Amino acid sequence: MNWTIQISNLSKFIKGKAIVTRMSLNIPKGSLFGLLGPNGAGKSTTIKLLTGRIKPSSGSILINGLDPWKDRVKLFETMGYLPQNPSLPGDMSVYSFIHYMARLKGMGRKEAQFEAREKLSLVGLDKFEESIIGKLSGGERQRLGFANCLLGDPEILILDEPTSSLDPEGRVYVMDLIGSLAENKSQTVVVSSHILPEIQRMTNHIAIMSEGKVLVSGSMRELTAGVFDSIYEIETDHPTDLMNDLIELGYTCKLDQHTVMVNTGERFSNFWDTLPKLCVEKGYQLRSYKPFRDPLENVFLKFVSYQNKFNGGDI
Amino acid sequence: MEVTSKMERLQTLKSIQFPKYGRSVGIVAWNLFRQLIRERRLLLSAVYFIVVPIFLISNSVLTAVQTGSGIALFYAHRNIENYIRTFYLSFFLGQILIVVLSADQLAGEIEQDTYALLRSKPVRDSEIVIGKFFGLLGVVSLLDLPGYLYIYFYSLITYQADTPAYIGTIDEIIGGFLLLLLLQSIIIAITLLFSSLFSKNLYSILASLIFIYIISIITGLIQGSNTKIVDNYLSIDWLAQAILPSVLYHLEPLESHPDPVLVILSILAVIAGALGLTTVIMRNREIF
Question: Which residue ranges make up each domain of chain B?
Fold first, then answer.
């Protein structure tokens, strides 16, 4: 496989504390890669290492064959970076800032003007060109940070918690924007987040991190294949009757308003024979059924809880 | 055949990738210049730099200069020295303003986390440091200019009737102005160096002022004739006192002074050293 980012035995210690520990990870070219993990997992530190903001204590990172710490200038010719809650100069106007950043990206004056306007339009800030950055809302600033990292259409985008300071509307907008980047297969996007549904929506490859380590990584399809939830939510016109029938058959059930929650346990495969037959026999109308948790959530909980148990000495 | 060869050579020349180094210096400098001239603190600085010298000069160089006698020449000489001392005394606070303007350029950016934005672009740390230096120098020179023009026209009005020899030519005025900028460049370069060492703006301001004060005392002591600490006014004004009279008014300074070329080279070396060290520090600095 063609790897854009190769991380090998990477460790970072800050004030004697291990933040990232012997991390090895390969990120394929053209992927939308999600770094998923709870708060304090080391995602932001990993992103800072990837962007050359901090120096690895040991191990190596190669991005298109370049070391971010040593070859930062060369690397950023083809890379864009959105920090978590980006700090932007509050006294500059939106257009002046983005034009200045475009010039620093290596563009000529005219090209920078065109690029600045195009990217502001892309993130929906074209009406705010003359606004002072300090007067923008948190969501608008985040969009401006996003426009900045898209300047020059970089081959690699590194986004640290891109939706963290956004309102629901802004989140959807940014997630769709990131999703649209997938259409351009030559662009590699790395997104960190602790919000699982967002990662699931935005990315097609993930790595789950906890306590500075990568617990598992791969494509979304690989990781969720064969992972099933034993708890299901079933909606029917006779929820109480269905629940009683299932309890009689030995299933553990609970009624949550009009939804029957069923724990199929080990009898997962039998359940899908039993349920339709039962509904036909009794005349219940089956309105919907879905797993209580989605597959990725199961993968996440499985690995993170395993790690926590392991560290807690339960195993 | 020859034409083809020339065309080939032209093509080869066109294909050479010239280093892009230095292009961002101008961009960083211009952005900083534009940003600073919009700031209110700069307006205060401008008022200070224009009003204070005018006030002090108007009150210190009014002693009449009489022509034709050695005594008059002595008085004129002494007046000019007093004027220069006064002018540089006015820079006691002026230097603090330069330090305050310069100190947050790196420390402030790190404190506010905006330095990460610059580092997320293909720009070398040296380009950022040198760009900041020239941006600040541009602002300081803009602040100095009205005061300097005032000096020139004041001397023109005061001396043109009786002692035209004391009026500096435009070349001399420009020379004096550049020398003053060189002296201020040292303050900017040293402040940038301290700015790179700290993550808090205030610490970098205090450290810069203390360092400049210590340097001022040391240089004063080395000069011997200017051993009085009180004469140094938190500055390196002994250099100006030594050189400006000859540059501006064709006069030999009253006190012994070093070779001007050596002084200028030393100043340039100090500036280059401070900026180089700042670059090395920033290059190896982790931005958490």
Answer: 48-283
